[in-house]
Amino acid sequence: MPRDAARRHRRAAADLSVWPPAGATAVAVSDGYQRLAERGYGYGPAFRGLTAMWARGDELFAEVRLPEAAGGVTGFGLHPALLDAALHTAVMANPDAELVLPFSWQRVSLHASGASAVRVRIAPAGPSAVSVELADDLGLPVLSVAAMVARPVSEQQLRAVLSGAGPDRLFEVIWSPATATSTDAPASYRVFECAAAVDDPVTATYERTHHALAAVQPWLAEHASGVLLMVTRGAVALPGEDVTDLAGAAVWGLVRSAQTENPGRLILVDSDVPLDDSAAATAMAVGEPQVLLRNGQAYTPRVHASRAVDGILVPPGDGPWRLGLSSAGTFENLRLEPVPNAGAPLGPGQVRVDMRAIAANFRDIMITLGMFTHDALIGGEGAGVVVEVGPGVTEFAVGDSVYGFFPDGSGTLVAGDVRLLLPMPADWSYAEAAAISAVFTTAYYAFVHLADVQPGQRVLVHAATGGVGMAAVQLARHLGLEVFATASKSKWDTLRAMGFDEDHISDSRSLEFEDKFRAVTGGRGMDVVLDSLAGEFVDASLRLLGPGGVFLEMGKTDIRDPGVIAQEYPGCATAPSTCSSPAVPACTSTCSSWPHCSTPGCCDRCR
Question: Annotated region C-terminal hotdog fold: where (predicted)?
Answer without folding.
Answer: 24-159
